[in-house]
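1st attempt posting a full record on here, be nice pls
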Amino acid sequence: MSPIKIGLLGLGTVGGGTATVLKRNADEITRRAGRGIIVDYAATLEPERASELGMSDLRVTADAFDVVNDPDISIVVELIGGYSLAKELVLQAIENGKHVVTANKALIALHGNEIFAKAQEGGVIVAFEAAVAGGIPIIKALREGLAANNIEWLAGIINGTGNFILTEMRDKGRAFDEVLAEAQALGYAEADPTFDVEGIDAAHKLSILSSIAFGIPLQFEKTYTEGISKISRDDVIYASELGYHIKHLGIARRTKAGIEQRVHPTMIPKKRLIANVNGVMNAVLVNGDAVGHTLYYGAGAGDEPTASAVVADIIDVVRVLTTDPENRVPHLAFQADLLADIPILPIEAIESAYYLRMCAENHAGVLAEVTRILGESNISIEAFIQKEPENNHAEQVDIILLTHKVNEGDMNIAIQQIEALDVICGEVMRIRVESLD
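the predicted structure (as tokens):
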């Protein structure tokens, strides 16, 4: 059979990695796909990149629509990122009857419902394994490997930058701002790190995982999102004293009332495997009713780890090019007309245990006032630490409390009442605690 010709939109880090892997592993890929795969056309603003990659014969254009509209291209691989232009290019490719592979989590999270509907109408595939957790095949695992299960919950470290920062703060006692600056210097974080440190990147990915796990439409806008910028070295130290590590988790859980879909700093018992995923690595823990716990670990970013997922998608598309569209694996795992209308719960409706850190006046009876408020809200305390002042004349001390599981709405009310006490200085720091057992 004649080789399949693909077009790359972007020859940056991931685009270059994809071209390299396809070229280096061409023979093995052909054995797996059943026919050859050729990178025939690429859109890039740096035409010299083709020669740098050892592909001087590659057709190159500065206009991505040239690739999308080329009749010889069967698969368009979108690796430029962003929202609007990427969406236009993907929809045009679908309109032209071309299959699409993308690593663009923001595109899928915000516009996936529309894109998948158009793809189904056109009888083409949109593959997006690389959009979540880089080289970890978590989407395939959820969509195919765990298809026999009712997924009960999943929890993931799905942003390497945030994980790197929290690891450095814990292991080396460094401050958030200092580690963030290093992450930017190393290329882990962008000049504007908002998407990484405030949880937006993780929320994009979590909304995709949640949709596939529970058979619901993509609903990024309903994901509760909280970043790590308020985490201090003291919080990391106190968590460790209590037997926990702090991780920035994306959590999706099925409940009787609806779906929890939330991203926030989370304290996890040190003994959990996922609590010991460090540096820029990613991991996703999935609980299914039949299989129990399964953990997926690996590189969440980088040229060739991400290219691994992109090329795997390309191979999958090539394998099914002759397959009847009705018999393909659905984009979001469940048949498109059978997606469930299960509500995404507001954060106030969830239940969690909590770590609370508060600065208090160094007076007798302060802890009694705080525990009274918690008791009136039916919030029980599992453990507490009252830090001894550095000297007997210190005016303020830290109080750290670990609660049992409670409704978030009740905790919000209790925190407001605690912060209103004259003996409490400033805001109460709150971190949710998950046992993940």
